[in-house]
Amino acid sequence: MLLDLLFPRRCILCLVPGSTLCAACTSALPRVVPPLCARCGSPVAWPVTRCRECSGRRLAFGAARAAVVYDAGVQTLVSSWKERGLRDLASLAAAIVAEAVTRPAVHVITFVPEDGDRSLRRGHHPPVRLARELGHRWDLPVRSLLRRTRRLRPQRGLGREERRRNVQGAFVAESVRGRVLLVDDVYTTGATVSAAASALRRAGASSVEVVTFARAVRR
Ligand SMILES: [Zn+2]
Ligand SMILES: [Zn+2]
Prior knowledge:
Helix content is about 35%, strand content about 15%.
């Protein structure tokens, strides 16, 4: 298309012309590799059912899995995805997720909704695009089940407990049956997806699993 002629696409990370993310950068994205904590998906030294990161926490989801580690390159990728849309990134991210994560045994896919304020701007919302791409790949229906009840103060810079309080009761869900897969772009402490999963369960979901593109990993 015309825009491609005027502004040839370049790799977001290495600026090589051609595609939004070149093959070399795609394969160099740091994958989340097992063994993982069965519950929160954090990489661990040996398989455990709860790890240092999630033990003693009330998490409303059954398990969380992610494809790549949220390092500096992936942060650049996710923020460009948010700011500029970059249609082809959604299918690329879904392909990377589908490679890393086994298709969950769920009935429906939903996603963490956009902040009320942000939807007024002409921004892009990676979770909905990723959810649709995964629905397509995994042959699962995608429903917009969640709504935010209020504006949140940004989670960035908050500690774990503050994050939990910040998102508590921040979501309501439409009535739903069966097992639900909740999609988000980044898993940081799990506070947001846990609050969203809790709304889904109050609305009738028998269980909620979480899949994100990226995950913060504490070393
Ligand atoms: Zn590149
Ligand atoms: Zn864990």
